[in-house]
Amino acid sequence: MNKNSYVTAALFVVFVLLTVFYVSIGDGTEKDAKVGSTSVVPQANLEMKETDAQSAEELTAKEEGQESTETEEDKETKETTSSIQIQRSEVKKAESELVAQLKSIIASKDSDATEKSEAKDDLDKITKDTQHQTVLESLIKAKGYDDVLVRTNEETVQVFLEGTEEPTLEQTNEIIMMAKTEFATNPDVQVQFKAIK
User: Fold this and answer.
1) What is this structure's pTM?
2) Which domains are delineated in the chain?
């Protein structure tokens, strides 16, 4: 395998891992708001989902009839860490690993000019997408949400919201239009909302 194959394989693995992660955070009752590329104002359907204060360890321990060994401090930390914060840290970790891999290809003496060029293009795309995501997160958070996470992959922009009040259809459509404006590629936009206490 040449370096291009490794980069392609790494990008594919990261994409698959992120997709699996996004799917796993839902419980099957959430519905994404998908928007096609039509000139009609997009419509969205959202369902509110209550957060579960129990950690996976507590649930596992209860199923096995065992007591949880977590301290009160551990429980408080987990309860104050939102699912978006957890997701953000995992996505950033995967992104950092990919960036490090691309930088090593660019710096490698064994990589040919084509491989270095493709790695640089991939790195530039990651940097550009991260900038757009950060701007959009700030704009949406300014609307009053407790936390916002924006993720992109190819032609889709995913917006994860956490707050005490579910956005109205009008607010959701505004978020969708903000995403389409920020990412000029006219992407499909998916909005997911999670209520927090």
Assistant:
1) 0.58
2) 3-195 (1.10.287.4300)
